[in-house]
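seq as requested:
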Amino acid sequence: MMRNLRLLALALPALMLAGCEIGTKVTEQVGPRGTGMAQVQHKAGIPVVAAVPEPPYPLTPDMLQGPRAKETYQNVQVLGDLSSEEFNYTMAAITNWIAPADGTVPNGGCNYCHNPENMASDEIYTKVVARKMLQMTRNINSNWKPHFALSNYAGKGAGVTCWTCHRGQPVPAANWSSALPEPNSIAGNRHGQNAPAQSVAYASLPNDPFTSLLQGKNEIRVQSAKPLPSDHVVSIASTEKTYGLMMHMSQGLGVNCTYCHNTQNFANWSQSRPQRVSAWYGIRMLRDTNDNYITALGKTWPANRLGPAGDPKKDYCATCHRGINKPLGGFPMLKDYPGLAGSYQTSAPVAPAAPVAAVPIAAIETTKPAA
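struct tokens:
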């Protein structure tokens, strides 16, 4: 009996600490002093910034001259404004970003999208998808710059390329698609929640807040400024979806709630950090991406690229961020790939940047707010 009590005495503290993250913590003040706005991370769990691949070869000013790609090649609908040389350079990079010919991707290389007997043909669906994704990339870099405004490299090439999301894979590792309704079970119908889910940082919140909030135009609110709002029905259900999305954003960026909000008043914009504005634009950028580029491809998507509910796999915060508040640590990818920045610019690009090795995120310079 006494032996059992001793074992119980040892087991109880272990059980009580099972939900705790034991180890050294790293704290960074991000808000004004005295507000408690700080980022707390487990030192052993700080993510590593992914390496950035070296450009296929140097892009020199003379390569921007000469005939345009639409004049040299057939059926170039998106990047036809680039010179033929820059077009080839960009295609070589895209191949390495999405389907490298190193054996890691079946049928990788140019043939992943092209019929080698007729490069102009659209017979392979991946080419049609790639064209739409290039339109999407240029749209993001041209029209959603406010989302990148706080980057260390804002105005110096901050933006996205195919590598930002794909990282050498045909389908980005972080994606979402609509969940199927759950059937009734012995535990009852959980209505897509009340069970820890990775998609919402293992909280017992709706595990698919994305269908409602990262496509279309539904409001993302917890409360309304009006007693009887005509534009939004405030309910526990809608509030839980909002919390589910916020949990995903926190996990996707590797940050606390106080990265954007002052917990004294979550709703008050004047007490929030500028990062909340960036997040506001980011949500709308994702809706634009999901509605007008990914879902818009419709029947182009084959069955193996669809989720359980029959919709394509779409983007959310984790697709680009991968647990880091600035994708790839804020590295200026467009510095080496000006053709993806949007409308063609005739100015010569900056000399190619050296490849970046993987480094802990703690070693990357971050913007410090005024105390």
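DSSP finds nine helices and four strands in the chain.
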